[in-house]
Amino acid sequence: MKTVPVRGTRPAVLAGGQSLPMERPPRGETGLPAWLRRNLFSGAFNTTLTIVLAVVFGWLGWTVLRWSVLDARWGVILRNWRVILWGVYPHAEAWRPATSLILVAVLAVLTLAVWRVQALGRVRQAVLVAWFMSPLVIGLLLRGFELPTLRTIGNNVGYYLFRPDFLPVLNAIWRAPTALFLITTVASITWGLENRLRPRLLALAPVGVLVTFNLPAAFDFSGPVPAALVAPVAGAGGWLLGRSLGRLLSWTEAGRRMVKWLWLAAGFASLLVLTTLEVGRPEFDPAPVLAIIQPSQWSGVVLTLVLASVTAALSFPLGVLLALGRTSRLPVIRYACVGVIEVVRGVPLITVLFMAQVMLPMFLPLDLTIDRVLRAIAGMTIFTAAYLAEVIRGGLQAVPREQVEAARALGLSELLVTSLVVLPQALRLVIPAIMGQFVSMFKDTTLVAIIGLLELLGILNAITKQREFLGTVREVYLLAAAFYFVICYAMSVASRRVETRLGVGTR
Amino acid sequence: MPEIERLDTGNDIIVCEDVKKWFGEFQALRGVSLRVRRGEVLVIAGPSGSGKSTFIRTINRLEEHQAGRITVDGIELTHDVRNIAAIRSEIGMVFQQFNLFPHLTVMQNLTLAPIWARRWPQARAEAKARELLERVGIPEQAQKYPGQLSGGQQQRVAIARALAMEPRIMLFDEPTSALDPEMIQEVLDVMKELAHTGITMVVITHEMGFAREVADRICFFDFGLLVEIGTPNEFFNNPRHERTKLFLSQILHS
To answer: Minimal CB count within 10 Å: which of A15, A325, A400, B59?
Structure first.
């Protein structure tokens, strides 16, 4: 009897120190011939099936191959590759989408390389950080950006924080008393909350400064409302208001802590009032760094990738929140989430996309218009999030109740129980399903062609209408199929790999 | 923020007065009154379904009691989240099924709560974790996942995980019932060692040898009632109630 050492297993040793060798498997039970016999030619039916299918697939492959070598006019793609990649993006700025695509490609290759080699732990972290930074960099690159001047920063912050639409109405006479009123109020609150002398005096100091500014007006008795009366009244009013507000705030610790924010707000507001910054009109005073190119001008592969990645990045956290909301104990939150999920899941994506185009502006302030691409992203995000929520809810329900109890017994708060114990386990259970959702979302990006966006498929359709390339639909659609297949397959491979990596040591 | 009110309960660290609990229509606890002294090892015995598990789970609010009063280290167990949090931070619990977090390594299992709930720096939490793993006899398993350990090792990790929060009270809910026979002893040894450190322990177990050796008092639950309580000597040699006698004869002669 011949024996072989079996690789990777420890030799079996009996109690007496006598080793227990394994026998070699019978001839013809291992290797390629055995596999072929067992799987392809195990019987008459199986053998027939194998041969028929081999003929069919061979014929299909041969036809496509012959066509693509002899008849296909690949010129349509070779001549149009720029259009396919970034479409109608302004020609002079084409380096920006090109750089973005190269960046993504380099990152993808790096990721593949780094994940194969075990030793590159630190590089791996750098790659991960690069992935997280890439949306910002690519976003800035594609859209372009302008740096505002200091003055416009002040105007804008003032505008969006306070919306002081009343300011232009405010006469010059009223500006100083208004500032005095604001500052005195906060000073008086502070006075009420502090019982030591120094902070009290410190609080009075800005009031003193303002009073000094107001002094010239003290002798001004002209006009319908004499300034000499207005300033003292504003000061006194502020002081009285501050005293009662102070008493209110002193009840809670949070209220006491609020005082410094009140100072900040009042100081900023007073500054705006006094220096007459044009807060009512938040015009941009731009210093362009990269010319702005709105998303509606993005197209081709670039638009497809942007749509898919932004939708994925936004819909995942939204889906998690919806799923958690659906399992919440608070009925208001639960029913709101159930409502969103069920309504969105009950409506076709096309409808959601149209709704996003038409309805979204309704919920926004009139002066805020949203780009068409962003509206499409919003629609796809809520759609994907609703499906993800159901997938994630399945994961949440699969985490045993005992895990929650163990975490609670350790003294973790409900938020920590969810985020440290339940969610990590729930999410890794549903990685394949989440990735499946993303794959179908990626393919669904083609639907935005219907609302007039030129993503990859839209651009390809347009190309086939070029006069010199009429009738090249096959070539073009084959390319589209290859593109979507390669990316979707890469996604599912990645998901499987993540799954096995995270599966280490799970029960 | 007002301080949590602490009552003076003298030398008693857990005070339960007439605790009642229903699951739907079924009454699981029919008014249990029990005082556990500081540093005491109290063993709870009783047939399954007698409410003993429900009872110790009400002490750290894994189950909510619907009538009666529970005070832990002077803090009354109310609906107030801060009271519940304060009480849970004083109580460690070990479960029948270990309930380790399968997605975390042993080390992460032990440091999770100290880092996130106690806000310890990671280095301190890990030092404490290593010390505890040493104490329960498995320092070399720190980087493994729970699924790679034997049942006995998992239960010892679970004990270490509860101890990592430096609790004053440890609750054990049948810690050896899910273990293979050859692993029971290693867990019991850790518990015996723990009992000698002066921590308060409330242990549900069928290991009467352990009870006889380590317990200060043993109590017997049946039908949601505390039937009998006494020292091991009284309990084993001179039980007063018929139910206790029957239970003892079943458990000791089987």
So the answer is: A15
CA distances from A454 to A295, A480, B112 (A): 11, 14, 49
Q: Give the Å distances, CA to CA, from B10 to A366, B38, B175.
A: 68, 9, 30
Q: What is the largest CA-CA distance in chain B?
A: 57
Give the minimum alpha-carbon distance from B155 to chain A in angstroms, rounded to a whole number.
13
Instruction: Quote the percentage of chain A above a pLDDT of 90.
Output: 31
A406 and B89 within 8 Å at the Cβ level: the answer is no
Question: What is the pLDDT averaged over residues B24-34?
Answer: 93
**What's the rounded Cα separation, in Å, for the pair A240 and A238?**
6
H/E element, B171: strand B169-173
Number of neighbouring beta carbons within 10 Å of residue A289: 11
Q: Are B191 and B159 spatial neighbours (Cβ–Cβ below 8 Å)?
A: yes
Asked if A188 contacts A241 with a C-beta cutoff of 8 angstroms, the reply is: yes
Site of tokens 């409330």: B202
CB proximity B92 to A under 8 Å: yes
Q: Is B225 helix (H, G, I), strand (E, B) or coil?
A: strand
CB B204 within 8 A of CB B44: yes
Cα distance between residue B119 and residue B115, in whole Å:
5
CA dihedral A334→A340→A344→A347, nearest 10 degrees, is: 100
CA dihedral A147, A150, A155, A159 (to 10 degrees): 60
Q: Retrieve residue A87's tokens.
A: 């479409």
Residue B33 phi/psi, 5-degree rounding, is: -120, 130
CA distance A29 to A23: 13
**Cβ neighbours of residue A219 closer than 8 Å, sequence gap 6 or more:** A228
Low-confidence ranges of chain A (pLDDT < 50): 1-6, 8, 280, 505, 507
Contacts of B113 (CB under 8 A, 6+ apart): A407, A410, A411, A412, B161, B164, B165
Element (DSSP H or E) covering residue B6 = none
Query: What is the rounded CA–CA span in Å between residue A29 and residue B156?
Result: 46
At residue A283, the 3 state secondary structure works out as coil
CA A222 to chain centre: 59
Segment holding B29, helix H or strand E: strand B26-37
Q: Find residues 422-451 of chain A whose CB sits inside 8 Å of chain B.
A: 424-425, 428
- A69 shares contact with chain B (CB less than 8 Å): no
Q: Do A505 and B147 touch (CB under 8 A)?
A: yes
Nearest 5°: the CA angle A27, A32, A38 is 80
Separation of CA B168 from chain center: 11
Residue of A nearest to B149 (CA): A505
Chain B residue numbers with beta carbons less than 8 Å from the beta carbon of A400 are: 99
In angstroms, rounded to a whole number, what is the distance separating the alpha carbons of residues A324 and A95? 43
Say if CB A487 and CB A105 are below 8 A apart. no
Cα–Cα dist A167/A169, whole Å: 5
Q: Any chain A CB within 8 A of the CB of B97?
A: yes
How far, in whole angstroms, is CA A128 from its chain's centroid? Answer: 16
- Compute CA distances B215 → A169, A497, B30, B91, B94, whole Å: 82, 51, 25, 19, 17
The reply to whether residue A406 touches residue B95, judged by beta carbons under 8 angstroms, is yes
Map residue A210 onto helix, strand or coil.
helix
Q: What is the separation, in whole angstroms, between the first and last Cα of chain A? A: 40
**Whether the predicted pLDDT of B132 surpasses 60:** yes
pLDDT tens readout for residues B222-234: 999 999 999 999 9
Beta strands B225-230 and B217-222 are antiparallel
Give the three-class secondary structure for A100.
helix
pTM over 0.80, yes/no = no
Structure tokens at A165: 């639409």
